[in-house]
Fold:
Amino acid sequence: MNGQRGDIGLAEPTSALEGDEDHFEPGGGALFLLLLEDGTEEMRAAIDEQMDAVAAWWVKAPPEGPGFTKVEPEYPPAGRHDVERFLAGSHIREVEADVPLVLYVTGHGITSAASTHYAVLRNTSTERLLATGLRTSEIIAAALDSLSRDVLVIVNMCESSDIGSELLAMERELTQRAESATLHVLTTAGPKRKVLGGAFAAILREAYELLSSSEEITRPFLTMEEFSAALRQATRAINARESRKLEQPRVMLPGKQDVPTATLPNPGYRPAPAAVEPGRQELAPTLEHLDYWLEKASGRPNATDAGWYFSGRRPLNERLTSFLHGPAAVMVVTGIAASGKSAILGRAVTLSDESFRRSRRFEAAVRHCPAETVPGEGSVTVAVTAHNRDPLDLLRAIAGKLGARADPGGGTDALRRWQAGLRLFLRTPGPMVTVVVDSLDEANDPMGCVHNALVPLAGHRTAEGPLDHVPPQTTRAKPKGRGVRLVIAVRSSSPADETSGVQDGEHELLTGLEASFGEVTFLRTDRTGMREDIAAYVRALLDGEAAWQGQDLDGVSQVVAAAVGRSFLDARVAAEQLRTGGPSLLKDARWLGRLNTGTVGLLAADLDRAAEDGLGADEALALLRATAFGLGRGIPWGEVWPAMAAVLLERPLQEADEKIRNLLGGRLAGYLTHDTEDDRRVYRPAHDSLAAVLRRWPAGGADRGGGSGNDG
Structure:
């Protein structure tokens, strides 16, 4: 620590456990503090600053479970024997396996002529380090060789990275223990470098803020790789902002960098209560979406109307419910872009979920649904989206959620192993399973997904088990093992007025599905009468809004329905603009003109008002467009989203994190949906047709010769 050394008085006593590990709260951890003060006010202030930052990370209770319990000497150690007594009396070496252990050491440090790093205490003579100093590695070893499965040691001392060679030798002693434990050591100063006051505290605070906001890691615990990356990013940010030259902290033990560890609670973790069980969550509406509609429902004049997602489109809901109550078979739900395919599936998936139906929050809503439109409890087993998945990813998602595992005896190819594992699962006697797959047309290889993931499932309609092809004339028989119902949603290239069958001019995927499965039931969402469904949807969105009390909601909803054609997406956006803009918007000729141009015009109208959310229209557009170019299930926030937006903006995006927060909290948030990939929240456009509009925006777009966007 870069401060003057001098006399030190006794510190005020602090509450310490004196090492009684039985006092650690279940699920919590132990934070051991060695604060090697030198008696100066400068150092005391620096340590106080560090303790504030350390407390935020480890002492404060996380969203779930207790925080870490502090264990520290009653008085600051003056000599090596004080430290040794603390290590013995605190029982740090005996911390139990299920108690995460963090040891934080701060103070003066020095490297000897023999390259040994020492902790320098008040009674230490730099001329007699062997007799009066204490090897820092001995302090570290007490934690690393404890019984805890998760250990983190942070050494905030001058020249602390010089312990590297000693740690290398120690690592050999800990080889067997390292196989079953995560052991990490972090140092803050390089060779011949001093620790500057509260430098590490500033870095720790900055990293905490990053991980609390823009990083959006969805796990309760971080990996050392994620933690150290946040520290590096924080160091760079402080240096750039304050023209400083702070050192980046260094990870000294290389093992298990990518394994989440209980020593690193994630400050950005926000456990979101799920509306349905994990196997159905990909397609079910989010809890916040359900809450919105439930709130709308509770304020409606008709007490039996439980909100939009439980009402409307009754014939479609009845047909899907009937299918889910029937024998093993295949249904293809199809319609043009934004015609409500995902909404129909999401409603069925949600209503079939046991936990949703038994929830006090939603039981009344379920009870008010027409009985013919309510699937039986558990009638949907697994629900997944094929969006940006390849055949192996889709197969693994379905099989894993069903409870199947890859069969090691299935060969060297991963796809074949998962197919074999799924086959074994389905041949085991058990109840019928129903698999719902949304957005097959958005898969990376749709027909590959059909042949390698879905046809093997559909084969269990017969007594023969999985087949490479199911002929149209196959005679049904009682399946061996489990039967399978399969529901697949895929976009049509043209609208239809019929409720079944592949129409003339449909793209190859629909034709391929019919050829692959033989007997298929088609359910079209773009049938005659869709305009009335859209009008009812718009009316439900406006009903109960203060600004629209006493207004002709039927007339307004018909105006919107006539303008947006067969697009529920455009209807939703238009209704949201009417909710915020009020009835005066219907007198705005410019808005009415944009309403008739579909997605492009509606988005342009929202971009015109982006300044109300603290965004320039060009900045908002760049942020939205960036999500449309993301691969996988979306783009993460962190450093990726701002960087992609800056490329599209063709200039740096100033205060990017704040502007993304404004976007996500403002009117434009409705254009995005979020998902999880690689344990991070990711963002993408709310619909694939919207993504297409955003990708081609410079060549079209509002007032630039763009199309309507209604046909996606």
Q: What stands out?
A: The first strand starts at residue 29 and ends at 36. The mean pLDDT is 82. The first helix runs from residue 41 to 59.
